[in-house]
Amino acid sequence: MAERSGGESPTDRAVSAGAEMVEHVDRDGNVIGIVTRAAVRAGVLRHRCTYVAVIDSADRVVVHRRADWKDVYPGWWDLAFGGICNVGEDWVSAARRELAEEAGLTGEALWPLGRVAYDADDGAVVGEVYLVRSDTEPSCPDAEVVEVDRVPVADLLAWMEGRSVCLDSREVVAPLVIAALGAGR
Prior knowledge:
Number of strands: 9
Strand order of the largest sheet: 6-3-8-7
Number of helices: 5
Helix content: 25-40%
Mean pLDDT: 91
Shape: globular
Strand content: 25-35%
Largest sheet: 4 strands, mixed
Distance between the termini: 46 Å
């Protein structure tokens, strides 16, 4: 396997991610307990996460394909950068951190689109969705993203058909982005 900077292989990265501590929360986002990320995944425990949709000046969504070593939706397309909030981390800080880690974007204004809930067999989250306007090319410094593309918001629903797109992004991000930008009407 190819090694990441710092000598950490994708397998090592996935194993260390499983040991990260995560807030197990109720439907309102109140902390029930602190557990490992691996326990969250194994028990499909509700946790907090952020979603940051990046839209360029041509009203295209910056979509990306996730690395094959990711613990959820490996190799699938995603409509937003983001992920699990750290223990005690506020929503905006988590969104900024995830955007910097996954896309290499810093300093962009975050526009809140709303709080969402996703409850399914593959995961349970309370999330905050944000929109960022940027024409900066994502640098994807942490190797969680292996491919980037742009899709016009007006074509997003059609683009998702026949593609493996993260189910939570499909369900909670797409409708908010489309509504925010007035596409599909």
